[in-house]
Amino acid sequence: MGSSRKIITSPWRPASADRLDKAISLYKKDPTPPMMIPSGGQGSDEDLSEAAAMSQYLRDHGIPNDHILLEDQSLTTLENLQNSKALIDARPGRKYTVLVTSNYHVYRALRYCRKIGLKCTGVGAHVAPYYWPSALIREFVAIHREKKHLILFLAGWIVTVLPLVLILFEMA
Fold it and tell me: Taking the CB of residue 44, how many other CB atoms lie within 10 A of it?
């Protein structure tokens, strides 16, 4: 079985296999073949879970089935990481973990890893340029939904905007 290295791959979509290709590349460079954890649940409009689709892609690209641990219950990034951490913690050996996700998503995923106590390295996979604007907006909203970030964001706006408003009122 080799060492207990883990590579977590986040949800795969047929139009963008870049994350899986990046994870496969890392897998092939590792002299002690790691375990791969494709992770993602099944939406109501999907025939199979994201994890199952990713697992099939991994097998189709030469990853042996005994090096794949399926996590197919998660519906959010946080659940994805919590469930993957449970799989990692249940296995013996070293816990060196690499999280492979889209490059715009690495920051938030690693914040969640820190929150749940999963020590890992984040690796970002290429994302098509046309997808960046909507992806960054989604990440911005997701990060600022956290209470700490929302308070800091609002405080920053107050500190920068309030003096401008007061200056404008003095001019009028």
Answer: 4
Distance CA 88, CA 8 (A): 10
Residue entry with tokens 């207990």: 4
Prediction pTM value: 0.75
Contacts of 130 by beta carbon, 8 Å cutoff, 6+ apart: none
Strands 97-102 and 6-9: parallel
Distance CA 92, CA 20 (A): 25
3-state DSSP call for residue 25? helix
Reported as a single tens digit per residue, the pLDDT across 73-129 is 998 999 999 999 999 999 998 888 999 998 889 999 999 999 999 999 999 998 888
